[in-house]
TrEMBL record:
Keywords recorded for this protein, A-Z: Coiled coil, Membrane, Signal, Transmembrane, Transmembrane helix
Key word Methyltransferase present: no
Organism, scientific name: Aminipila butyrica
Molecular function as annotated in GO: ferrous iron transmembrane transporter activity
InterPro entries documented for this protein: FTR1/Fip1/EfeU
Name by which UniProt lists this protein: Iron permease
Transmembrane residue ranges: 189-205, 217-240, 252-273, 294-310, 330-350, 362-382, 413-436
Protein's cellular compartments: Membrane
The family this protein is said to belong to: Belongs to the oxidase-dependent Fe transporter (OFeT) (TC 9.A.10.1) family.
Entry coiled-coil feature ranges: 436-481
PANTHER family: IRON TRANSPORTER FTH1, PLASMA MEMBRANE IRON PERMEASE
Length: 492
């Protein structure tokens, strides 16, 4: 009996020890059996199912599983390329990113982008296979979750579910397209309108009742904004011409543009804060001619408007291009037009409300707004460089408390060291400069008050002297009249 049990038990132990390897081999074999398509266009050309968002995720899962197999085999570069193929070859080119951004939430786009970056960061940092698999599996589950939302389905990925997804997707496609187009226009346009509207209101406020001067100051801002719109279309055309759209190059261009905007916004914010004291602004206008005083500052403001519109405009144009090629063109234009109408109301609200705000709090609020936007653009710009593979992302576990939502996304706050550290440094610098400028403005105000008091005393003295002289003249006149009357009586 013992002679029989020993071989049997030994064989069972061998089989148990081989089970994980066999399971992995089965997974790898399954992944290898699936055709690998680096891009969505290649996938569609092969005749594979491509009617729902779950179909997109099915294709992406093959790419991601191939990446896991490559990483396990020691092919770090191959695994890295697989993640990039999943992002640039599928997630961006299919419109998945933009539809999810509009239909689910704007912050979902950021959350997904950071998860793609987290997968690539593991390959760059030489992480373990388990760590890489964990990040990729999380990415795949997030993609599947979004696909179910966009297709209007829930549950596992099977044939019947995909059939239902196609029907549900067809019925809700128009709504999803409209929501995406409307939200992208409102979201991206809001930042540009906020900056341009604040600058225009600032210049209108500074010009006072001088309509001619107001027109001369505001016109360059409108010109800069229009040039920004034109440049957005030109950039989108060039990216498509050079086949750089939906690539790392596009992310780098957007990142560099955002960082350039940070420099200009920060300069403009401090310039505005330095003029937030009414006496400072009055002195600024009085001590210089109009041409020399506002030449440099108007150029800076115009360039700021250009960058704000250009940065947001290019992304909007690139978003709308693939949307116009689907079957819901009417929903695309409806979202665009209604989004534009809403932005017009936002601009008018900024313009007319600013007229009723006193000059000092308005100038201060505008300067603070520009500072906040510079910090926001700094985070967004660095995030774009992370996506463009210029910077490697680090997101330690102790940053997990930072949520991903639309408010923080607009503020450019993300749970990464590469974005948070520069933002904190810029925030500290902004606070220090604000305190210094506030003290300077207070000193200017005290000096102006002192000067006004001296002028008031001098004016009162002059008025008193003038009254005294007038009284003397009046008395002298009365005496002269009395003397003249006396002489007239004596002669008669």
């Amino acid at each position: 009996m013992r002679k029989i049990l020993v071989p049997v038990l030994s064989m069972m132990m061998i089989l148990i020890s081989m089970f994980p390897t066999m399971a992995f081999a089965e997974t790898a074999e399954k992944s290898a059996a699936e055709p690998y398509y680096a891009t969505w266009d290649e996938y569609k050309e092969s005749g594979q199912p491509a009617s729902t968002w779950n179909d997109v995720v099915d294709a992406m899962e093959v790419v991601l599983e191939t990446g896991k197999a490559r990483y396990a085999a020691g092919d770090t570069r191959g695994a890295y390329d697989s993640i990039n193929n999943g992002y640039y070859g599928y997630y961006e080119t299919t419109g998945f990113e933009r539809i999810a951004m509009g239909y689910i939430s704007g912050s979902r786009k950021t959350e997904m982008e950071l998860q793609f970056s987290a997968c690539k960061a593991v390959t760059k940092n030489g992480g373990s296979t388990d760590e890489f698999n964990k990040e990729v599996d999380l990415l795949a589950s997030m993609l599947r979750e979004d696909a179910h939302v966009l297709d209007g389905t829930t549950g596992s990925n099977n044939a019947s579910n995909n059939s239902g997804a196609s029907a549900a997707g067809g019925s809700s496609a128009a709504v999803a397209t409209f929501a995406a187009c409307f939200s992208i226009m409102l979201r991206e346009g809001f930042e540009a309108i906020l900056i341009v509207g604040a600058i225009v209101a600032y210049l209108v406020k500074s010009a006072g009742d001088d309509i001619g001067r107001r027109k001369r100051l505001v016109t360059p801002i409108y010109v800069g904004s229009i040039v920004g719109i034109v440049a957005s279309f030109v950039l989108a055309w060039l990216l498509n011409l050079l086949k750089l759209a939906n690539s790392a190059s596009q992310e780098v261009i957007e990142g560099v543009t955002a960082l350039l905007a940070v420099c200009v916004l920060f300069y403009v914010s401090n310039w505005m804060l330095s003029k937030s004291e009414t006496d400072s602004w009055t002195s600024y206008i009085k001590t210089k001619t109009e041409k020399s005083s506002l030449l440099g500052s108007t150029f800076a403001l115009t360039f700021t408007a250009f960058l704000a519109v250009f940065r947001e405009g290019a992304e909007v144009v690139l978003f709308y291009q693939p949307m116009l090629s689907n079957n819901n063109v009417g929903s695309v234009w409806a979202g665009f037009i209604i989004g534009c109408i809403c932005l017009v109301f936002v601009y008018l609200a900024i313009h007319f409300l600013s007229i009723k705000i006193p000059i000092k709090p308005f100038f201060t609020a505008t300067g603070v707004l520009m500072s906040l936007m510079s910090i926001s653009f700094l985070g967004a710009g660095i995030k774009e460089l992370i996506e463009g593979d210029i910077i490697t992302m680090s997101s330690p576990d102790w940053l997990a408390w930072i949520p991903t939502n639309d408010i923080l996304d607009v503020l450019g706050i993300y749970p990464t060291l590469q974005t948070l550290i520069p933002q904190l440094i810029l925030l500290v610098i902004a606070i220090i400069l604000f305190v210094i400028q506030t003290k300077k403005n207070h000193a200017i105000h005290l000096e102006a008050e002192k000067k006004r008091a001296e002028e008031r005393i001098l004016r009162e003295a002059e008025e008193k002297k003038a009254k005294h002289e007038a009284l003397k003249a009046e008395v002298r006149g009365i005496l002269e009249e009395l003397l003249a009357e006396k002489d007239s009586t004596a002669h008669s």
